[in-house]
UniProtKB/TrEMBL annotation:
GO terms for molecular function: methyltransferase activity. Keywords: Methyltransferase, rRNA processing, S-adenosyl-L-methionine, Transferase. PANTHER family: RIBOSOMAL RNA LARGE SUBUNIT METHYLTRANSFERASE YWBD-RELATED (PTHR43042:SF3), SAM-DEPENDENT METHYLTRANSFERASE (PTHR43042). It holds the Pfam family Methyltrans_SAM. It comes from the Bacteria. Gene3D superfamilies: Vaccinia Virus protein VP39. This is Methyltransferase domain-containing protein. Signal peptide: none annotated. Residues 25-309 form the S-adenosylmethionine-dependent methyltransferase domain. It comes from Vibrio alfacsensis. One of its GO terms (biological process) is methylation.
Length: 310
């Protein structure tokens, strides 16, 4: 990370902020490696709150100039026009990912919008605040293709896909995630959007020990698989993904679709395509969804991969 590159960071940040809609957005994505010397910094706009994430420890000069630039931004006309209130640096590399508030007061549980839908975030206590912004196009696709469908959402987290599916007219969504606290947040996300909770199920179980319950609620017209890259003691992507794919034949309704996702720089699209051929040969790869342009990456295979099969 190079302090000499920070003027580029703030130039890009101001340009993106100026044209950002009144929605949650990634404004700077250094991890896509398009900005030399800024590979370990990102910046998200949470409709008034600016969250700067550092993924690697930086020297005192870099940190001092970063803070000075952020404070200068808060004193600008642009900041006033966008009704900015808070600027925070989150040290993602440090134990507990602590946050430092530079400007204003941090609202740790803001409600934001994406594509017209509301989501409750949780900032500063965890590495992830409750909505993966690079999956915006995936949620949009589900919303556009969920009408009258029975949807299974595996590794549901805070149920972003579920919210999108119900908003798109799905008949029913079954969310499965072993983190019951995340599912509770998902329930609140549905309530924020005035959804009928009777159409939504929340199964707080280990997927690999719950196939009976999952199958009982099927068959499914659309299955979304969006696992973590690694979860200690419960999920290792390259080993365990195939265990899910081989279950698709008994879960998927005739003519059903599968949206299979992977967000590990070391696992390519080809892994998913070949694994699907091996474990669920009745399904054919149809397309890879684009990622939002703000998540541009010098290597598309290192970025999020969202693949459609049917």
């Amino acid at each position: 990370m190079q302090a000499s590159q920070l003027p580029l960071f703030f130039q890009h940040l101001r340009s993106e902020l100026a044209q950002a809609p009144n929605e949650v957005r990634r404004l700077f994505h250094g991890r896509g490696r398009h900005f030399e010397g800024l590979e370990q910094i990102t910046c998200d706009w949470l409709q008034g709150q600016l969250i700067i994430n550092l993924f690697k420890e930086v020297d005192e000069v870099f940190l001092s100039e970063l803070k000075q630039g952020a404070i200068a931004l808060s004193e600008s006309e642009l900041w006033s026009e966008k009704q900015g209130s808070t600027i925070v640096i989150q040290y993602r590399y440090a134990d507990g990912a602590p946050s430092e508030v530079l400007v204003g007061e941090l609202d740790v549980r803001p409600i934001v919008e994406e594509s017209g839908l509301k989501y409750q975030l949780d900032i500063g206590r965890n590495q992830n605040f409750g909505l993966f912004l690079d999956m915006r196009y995936g949620r949009d696709w589900v919303r556009e293709n969920a009408k009258y469908k029975n949807v299974l959402n595996l590794f549901a987290y805070t149920c972003g896909f579920s919210v999108a599916a119900i908003a798109g007219g799905a008949d029913k969504v079954v969310n499965v995630d072993m983190a019951r606290a995340s599912l509770a947040k998902g329930r609140e996300n549905h309530k924020l959007n005035d959804h009928n909770i009777n159409q939504v199920s929340f199964l707080g179980h280990d997927i690999f020990k719950s196939w009976g319950k999952i199958k009982k609620a099927g068959q499914y017209d659309l299955i979304v698989i969006d696992p973590p890259s690694f979860q200690k003691g419960s999920f290792a992507l390259t080993k365990d993904y195939k265990k899910i794919l081989r279950r698709l034949a008994e879960l998927l309704a005739p003519g059903g679709q599968v949206l299979a996702c992977v967000n590990s720089p070391s696992v390519t699209s080809e892994f998913l395509i070949e694994s699907m051929k091996e474990e669920a040969p009745q399904l054919t790869f149809r397309e890879r969804l684009d990622n939002p342009p703000e998540f541009m990456d010098v290597d598309s295979e290192a970025a999020l991969k969202v693949l459609l099969f049917s």
